[in-house]
Amino acid sequence: MDLHTAAPGPDADGITTTTVDGIRTVLAPRSGLLSAGLLFRVGRADETLPTSGITHLVEHLALHRHGLGDLHYNGTTGALHTHFHVTGTTADVVEYLNGVCAALRDLPMERLETEKEILRTEAAGKSRGPGHAATLWRYGSRSYGLTSYAEVGLHHLTADQVRAWAQTRFTAGNAVLWITGDTVPEGLDLRLPAGAWHPVPAATSALPATPAHFRGEEGGVVLTAVLPRSTEAGLFADVLGKELFRELRQKGGYSYTATADYSPRDADHATLTAYADALPQKQDALVGAFVDVFAKLRAGRIEQSDLDAVRAGALAQFETPELAARMLPGHAVDVLLRHRTPTVAEAKAEIEAVTVADLRRVAQDVWADALMQVPGRGVDWAGLEPAPTDSPDLVDGRRHPAVEDPGVFLRLAEDGVSRVSPGQRVTVRYDACSLMQVYPDGARHLVGHDGFTVTVEPTLYHRITPAELAVIDAAVPPSAVVAMPPRDPSRIPRPAGPAPAAAPARRSIWFTVLLWVLGLPGLIIGGSALLLAMALGDSHDRIPQENAQHLLNWLFLAGAFLIPWAVCLDRRVKGKN
């Protein structure tokens, strides 16, 4: 069913706007093969931790029936949108788009468990970018912070849940279509539920203040900041990248990669990311040089030649042939997010108007919102506060010491649970719990909105009763609860047992026996002779008597020395056994 409204004609930049089966559609001509993309305003930031992965799962199910072939197509799931795109002949594009929409109307649920396994395999082999941890520290376990988590919903999502998500999010009213042609191809059938457009979710926050820093494991430095979308911020990212490369690679020799990026986050905000790597022995020097680059730019020491160079590069993009078609995917995303795209003339004028003073202001804004990941010691000296690694308070509940270490304990209360260990205390309030995984063996794993986690393992703590677990289960919102399958007994943690007894010291036993054999007769004979000599007094055969007496004295002394030694060794052997 090819229902589309007549287009009034292209705008000043060569882009035509129309509708196809109720879907907003943008067109721009391009030579060669046809390309098209179907965008939906749904992504990982729209999910919750218990349902994370549901959008990606719908995307995979929708593409399953396309199978093998030479057609160049794919699907991607981002933070805010899901994109099905294709390049081929007109017939290929029509077949692909029709197939995607047919699958969305009737997902192949017989493939549900198989696609879950495929997604888990995909995640296991996927490498993350250097700044992936920053989203968790900045946003916590909701909205954009979900992109830092595994898709934990894949373990339990049901067919009904997946089907309902597709029927409410993958709708005509929540979609935008782009095609690199001057007309809509014949034969398109993109019928979907009408639905409504879903606004972008509000960004959550887990940072009490910025600028801040946290310790990361990667061998480099990452700085992220959220800024208003603007032309000057985009140009600043290019200038920053040049300065980082010059100072950290060419001059300092600390880094192989030193770069910066500007990416729109939503209709109104963008994320700036700066990254530089280094070997372990150079990381402290890298951190100092990295901070110095930002201090320089914040002070306005920006080379006019750098601004001119990045300005020339930005303007050059408008000189490419078939510009409207090249801009079309980005324009479609702006339409989807309801962000007004400036015309080419407006964009050029904005680029020409940017000054060094504008870039200095952006540098100051970046530093004010900075979240910096460092590989070693902190950067408090640079004015960045440590991001929280502890909760601000503890719940007032019953104390449960750890079996292995009484210095570690849980507090279970009616409003939350806390875990205290030397140097750290963490609390998850039940009304601010994003996820609770419930295991049949009694374990509860809770994740707070701020990203902090507490695991209640009854095997590892004293006196956790079923009644206390029931209080937790009743208090956590049902939407946050995920029932987990039974764990293999080998995966249930147990307290470490007592250290194995040492093997008997056989050589010490025999040595002790020898000492008793030698020492006891000497002590008896020598002692008896000594007492006898004292009783008899002086003798006329004095010299032989003295010689014998000396020998007996030595026997007595030897016995007096060997017997205590034997007793000590005997006690040590008993202690080991």
Question: How is this structure best described in words?
Answer:
The protein is an alpha+beta fold. The protein contains 14 helices and 20 strands. A 6-stranded mixed sheet has the order 1-2-6-3-5-4, with helices on both faces. Strands 9-10-8-11-7-12 form a 6-stranded mixed sheet, with helices on both faces. β15 and β16 form a beta hairpin. The radius of gyration is 37 Å and the shape is flat.
Quick rundown:
With 577 residues, the protein is an alpha+beta fold.
Q: Top keywords for this entry?
A:
single chain; alpha+beta; 14 helices; 6-stranded mixed β-sheet; 38% helix; 577 residues
What is the arithmetic mean of pLDDT? 88
Distance between the termini: 87 Å
Quick one: how many beta strands? 20
Shape: flat
SS-derived structural category: alpha+beta
Describe the biggest sheet? 6 strands, mixed
Strand order of the largest sheet: 1-2-6-3-5-4
Can you tell me the residue ranges where pLDDT is under 50 for at least 5 consecutive residues? 498-517, 530-545, 559-577
Report helical residue fraction: 25-40%
**Individual helix count:** 14
Query: Over all CA atoms, what is the radius of gyration?
Result: 37 Å
* Percentage of residues in strands: 15-25%
